[in-house]
Amino acid sequence: MNLLSDRILNMSTSATLEMAAKARELRAEGKDIIGLSLGEPDFNTPDYIKEAAIQAIHDNYSSYTPVDGYVELKDAIIKKFKRDNGLTYNRSQIVVSTGAKQSLANVAAILINKGDEVIIPCPYWVSYADLVKLNDGIPVEVPTTIATDFKMTPEQLEAAITPKTKMLWYSSPCNPSGSVYSKEELRGLADVLLKHPHIIVVSDEIYEHINFVGKHASMAGFEDMYDRTITINGVSKAFAMTGWRIGYMGGPEIFARACNKMQGQITSGANSIAQRAVITALNESPSRVQFMIDEFKVRRDLVLDLLKDVEGFKTNIPEGAFYVFPNISYYFGKTLRGKTINNAADFSLYLLEEALVATVDGGAFGNPDCIRLSYAASQDQIVEAMARIKAAVN
Ligand code: PMP
Ligand code: GLU
């Protein structure tokens, strides 16, 4: 008998966090690693948000919080959903949690039964497939390529649906491809789903504000999808608050109640001080964090420009988030400095060892022909990283 459960033995380690830990270790050994592996803004949390947290400490927000979040935070989330997304929710439809990751874990746990299928367009964010498997579900990966800007078409969705399909689960803007589904494209997917009323949609919108092409579209914004869509969001990305650990879900009350029950047995309510800070973050206009988004766009253009000069890197034009996801299969079967590259994992490791640049193997996102680079790094670091990559592959 194994000491550890099958559940944990069958789970893969989060590749993003693993690579970030490896880069940290190498840095501690004195190696000059440029980290383009972790999807985390390099900005500090804005002062007006920090001040709210400091005030909350002085005001003694030190007790357990309601499992589903402070009422004032739920009200700020309700206001945000209305203001930014045109979505109407009431307090019983919102659950605050310890990061969007926990909201996603809750949703998987409350909806998936053994053998249920979950359609996940590829590439997808690392944790989706494992959260599905953890709950005995079956991830049904729908591959996409640069040719469709890494977006799933309505025909592909239709072909993937079976009587066992429980959910469609995606992020837009997408981690890792940066693709953004337009309202029309979402409508195309919604039209397919209308024929299959048993399917629930999980729409991960955590990169909503980091969008370089215009208005963000939400699946729940369609009246005929509202009752079967769960919208996930959080403050980690747009507000540079990854360590504060606050995320939330909005959706039909039956799902919110179930998430509340799940969280009540697992973590209880999210951190009190962080919740108070997020009330301020969400109540203020998103224009206060626009400077970070403008900077991400400059960096996106810089990365794309520099990558043009690197042999064998093919990319889409990411329209949101802060990642590029180049196809590097050109190198498969080739030998660089005596090291044979057979897959994206080999290539990512090669870049770590030879260019001292940390990236993530695309296999972890369901596409083993690609690697992911996060451009949530300074322009100087980006320029240096691209120069090193270019030198390492020449
Ligand atoms: N969804 C996506 C697509 C992400 O990239 C991340 C990054 N961490 C999360 C969810 C989880 O975010 P959080 O920090 O709020 O848990
Ligand atoms: N979402 C970020 C990433 O994709 C943070 C790491 C994680 O939570 O997995 O790199």
UniProtKB/TrEMBL annotation:
<protein>
    <recommendedName>
        <fullName>Aminotransferase</fullName>
        <ecNumber>2.6.1.-</ecNumber>
    </recommendedName>
</protein>
<dbReference type="InterPro" id="IPR004838">
    <property type="entry name" value="NHTrfase_class1_PyrdxlP-BS"/>
</dbReference>
<dbReference type="InterPro" id="IPR015422">
    <property type="entry name" value="PyrdxlP-dep_Trfase_small"/>
</dbReference>
<dbReference type="GO" id="GO:0030170">
    <property type="term" value="F:pyridoxal phosphate binding"/>
</dbReference>
<dbReference type="GO" id="GO:0008483">
    <property type="term" value="F:transaminase activity"/>
</dbReference>
<dbReference type="InterPro" id="IPR004839">
    <property type="entry name" value="Aminotransferase_I/II_large"/>
</dbReference>
<feature type="domain" description="Aminotransferase class I/classII large">
    <location>
        <begin position="31"/>
        <end position="389"/>
    </location>
</feature>
<comment type="similarity">
    <text>Belongs to the class-I pyridoxal-phosphate-dependent aminotransferase family.</text>
</comment>
<dbReference type="GO" id="GO:0006520">
    <property type="term" value="P:amino acid metabolic process"/>
</dbReference>
<keyword id="KW-0032">Aminotransferase</keyword>
<keyword id="KW-0663">Pyridoxal phosphate</keyword>
<dbReference type="Pfam" id="PF00155">
    <property type="entry name" value="Aminotran_1_2"/>
</dbReference>
<keyword id="KW-0808">Transferase</keyword>
<dbReference type="InterPro" id="IPR015424">
    <property type="entry name" value="PyrdxlP-dep_Trfase"/>
</dbReference>
<dbReference type="InterPro" id="IPR015421">
    <property type="entry name" value="PyrdxlP-dep_Trfase_major"/>
</dbReference>
<dbReference type="InterPro" id="IPR050596">
    <property type="entry name" value="AspAT/PAT-like"/>
</dbReference>
